[in-house]
């Protein structure tokens, strides 16, 4: 059976924009007979908090979403990520990088051919043995990067159309030992048989890197991608806590139920009128993947 997924990071309470993306991932899956898997992306140990895991899952269930099988947690899947790293090492594609963020910013400010803005400029890629020894001796821990060879990769997104960019040498494992998001997400989507990725449009720019990694790991063709429009606050910036009552708990404090919030989100996708309160299952029948508007919505 085809498989989609929703993959929240437990670094905060889900806000209406996150809940809207989750609702859309669920609707994409359910309206096409796919199952939806739930994956907790808790690889960033510094920012993930255990209490957000249960809280996020409870909020998703409260607006009527459900998922197939056990919730998968990235923090329990280090062996899979290590195996993927080893496979890349075997291909000679991994190298240590000692650059700090500030160093990368500075080096990236100089023109670097076709690399996109903010891309890694390749400082540590071709270090001599002596330079490498010197950096090792500094005791500063190294991140691990992949040698992507400035591959140009295009992806056709189901909502936003074609995106194409040059893939830089991105991080696979951070200098603090945490697995990098891109490695974990590509390994998990493959391991879980995910064929359809529905997520926020803010992640579109990482997609060519993920598609490249997917193929480089020998996983075959990457999943289909649908990046759904973000919800913006009144000031036009991406929705955040500072925009006011943006979580289910905030809305409950104002007397709104989870059903009210689901209806509001459904209305923002054009699936119901303002005064309706359709059940989640009712929305499945009304949803058409191709009818989704690609522009951001106000929260
Ligand atoms: N965990 C990521 C986030 O919450 C989403 C990753 C994905 O859907 O690929 O932003």
Question: What can you tell me about this protein's structure?
Answer:
This protein has 299 residues and is of the alpha/beta class. It folds into two domains: 3-76 and 229-298, Rossmann fold (3-Layer(aba) Sandwich), CATH 3.40.50; 79-173, Glutamyl-tRNA Synthetase, domain 3, CATH 3.90.800.10. 35% of the residues lie in helices and 16% in strands. The strands form four sheets. Strands 3-2-1-9-10 form a five-stranded parallel sheet, covered by helices on one side. Helix 6 packs across helix 7. The model has no long low-confidence stretch (mean pLDDT 94). Bound molecules: glutamic acid (GLU). Glutamic acid binds next to loops.
Low-confidence spans: pLDDT under 50, at least 5 residues? none
Helix count, per DSSP?
A: 10
For the record, the count of structural domains works out to: 2
Please list the strands of the largest sheet in the order they lie side by side.
3-2-1-9-10
Structural class: alpha/beta
Helix content: 25-40%
Following the backbone from N to C, one meets helices and strands in this order, namely EHEHEHEHHEEEEHEHEEHHHE
Q: Any idea what the CATH architecture of the largest domain is?
A: 3-Layer(aba) Sandwich
- Head-to-tail CA distance between termini: 34 Å
Q: Proportion of β residues?
A: 15-25%
Short description:
The chain has 299 residues and is α/β, with parallel strands linked by helices.
């Amino acid at each position: 059976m085809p498989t989609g997924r929703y993959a929240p990071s437990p670094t905060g309470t889900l806000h209406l924009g996150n809940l809207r993306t989750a609702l859309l991932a669920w609707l994409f899956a359910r309206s096409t007979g796919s199952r939806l898997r739930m994956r907790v992306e808790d690889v960033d140990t510094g920012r993930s908090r255990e209490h957000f895991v249960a809280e996020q899952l409870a909020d998703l269930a409260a607006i009527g979403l459900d998922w197939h099988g056990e919730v998968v947690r990235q923090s329990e899947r280090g062996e899979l990520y290590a195996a993927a790293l080893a496979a890349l090492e075997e291909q000679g594609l991994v190298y240590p990088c000692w650059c700090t963020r500030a160093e990368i910013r500075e080096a990236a400010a100089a023109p670097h051919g076709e690399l996109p803005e903010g891309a890694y400029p390749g400082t540590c890629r071709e270090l001599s043995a002596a330079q490498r020894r010197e950096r090792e001796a500094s005791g500063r821990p190294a991140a691990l990067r992949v040698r992507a060879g400035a591959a140009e990769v295009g992806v056709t997104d189901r909502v936003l159309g074609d995106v194409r960019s040059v893939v830089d040498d991105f991080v696979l494992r951070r200098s603090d030992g945490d697995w990098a998001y891109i490695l974990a997400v590509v390994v998990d989507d493959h391991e879980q048989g995910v064929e359809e990725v529905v997520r926020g449009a803010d992640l579109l720019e990482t997609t060519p890197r993920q598609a490249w990694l997917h193929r480089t790991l020998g996983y075959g063709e990457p999943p289909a991608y649908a990046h759904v429009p973000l919800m913006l606050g009144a000031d036009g910036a991406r929705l955040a806590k500072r925009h006011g009552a943006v979580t289910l708990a905030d809305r409950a404090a104002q007397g709104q139920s989870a059903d009210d919030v689901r209806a509001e989100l459904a209305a923002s996708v054009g699936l119901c009128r303002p005064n309706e309160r359709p059940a989640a299952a009712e929305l499945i029948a009304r949803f058409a993947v191709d009818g989704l508007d690609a522009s951001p919505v106000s929260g």
